[in-house]
Design goal:
Helix content is about 30%, strand content about 35%. By secondary structure, the chain is of the alpha+beta class. It has five domains: about 50 residues; about 80 residues, conserved putative lor/sdh protein from methanococcus maripaludis s2 fold, CATH 2.40.420; about 110 residues, Elongation Factor Tu (Ef-tu), domain 3, CATH 2.40.30; about 55 residues, OB fold (Dihydrolipoamide Acetyltransferase, E2P); about 80 residues. The strands form six sheets. The chain has a six-stranded antiparallel beta barrel with strand order 3-12-15-14-13-16. A hairpin with a 3-residue loop joins strand 17 and strand 18.
Amino acid sequence: MTNKTTSTGGCEPWADGGASSQRNGRHGLLFAFVVAVGLFALAVLVLLRRPVEQIEPEVSPPVVEVCRLLAGETPMVVQSSGAVRPGIEVDVVSELTGRVVFAHSELKAGGVIRANERIVQIDPREYELGVRQARAALAEAQASLDVEVAEAEAERRQWAQLSRETEPDLPLALREPRIRRARAVLESANAQLAAAELKLERTTISLPFDAMIAGDAVDLGQYVAIGQRLATAWGIDAFEVELLLDGDDVAWLELFPASDALAGRSDGDRILADVRADFAGGVHTWTGYVARTIGQVDLASRLVPVVVEIPRPLEASANRPPLLPGVFVEVRIPGKTLNRATAVPLAAVRRGNRVWIVEDDRMVVRPVEIVRTDAAYAYVTSGLPDEVLVVAGPIAGLTEGMAVCISEAVGEPSAP
């Protein structure tokens, strides 16, 4: 019983192993079938797929900055700068000796004194006495002449009574030298009186123009001598600025009229000038005019000195302070006008007088003729159309004929 049971239990494991092998074989066949079907489907997809179109990325043209410029009548403007100075500067000196008995209240630096106002009074008493003495001498000389003339007339009548046949030449001849002497003494007395009156007049010191006192050197009660400086004064009717211009700038100004140079210019022919100063908290303007040239070329700089005059510089308003000597100003002088020219910003002018422009959205380089340049512009008279888009920005990497896009135009440059 025991052996039978053992025998039966020994046969069951072999039976289970056979069934497992059969299942594994079926699984392998199924896996191989799935793989084959997948490969077949993949092959069909590869064979049936359409080729994918390759789309090249779109490249945008570069953007350039341009200025829209117009050709037309363009006035040339010459610009320069300098410091304001008084047109008239004088030293007020004493022509007499004496003590100062009056000094104007504005006789100090910065004081303003009107024309013909008394500035200084020297003690006049001594000179008043001199006038009285001269008048007395004049009266004495006049009396002496009257006596000589009367005596000559008496002798002439006496001679006429003694002889009616001859002229009284001898007595008159003898009296005539004494009459001439008396007349000479009278003339000298007149001159001495005039000199005494002139000295008395010189005790009162004034100026024939409105003046600003630049510096004083005299006080009330001070004794002054002949030739001693009493003050330094500036004329305030007009101040001036001396500009140094090179020959090219002078060529654009009508500084030398065709008429006689000694005749000068009339008021209507004066060349106006715009004077600007960054002064007293803002930029202020005054109107001046070209008054003259110095008359020679500066030997050190080889520049031409031109003087611009500013009338009534001390007139102030609520919006503009007075223009004082020493203020640094910029001066703009309008010159000749070009009939057809384009003012091109200097940044747009490339090497060799070439200008890049945009035509039909493409870069074009144009050689141009430049007749003048200043601090901001080159003035082109040929090589550009009447209306043009000029490339004002960088051109690195750009070539002629390249398609470009333009940025918003910055407009015409301000008038020169």
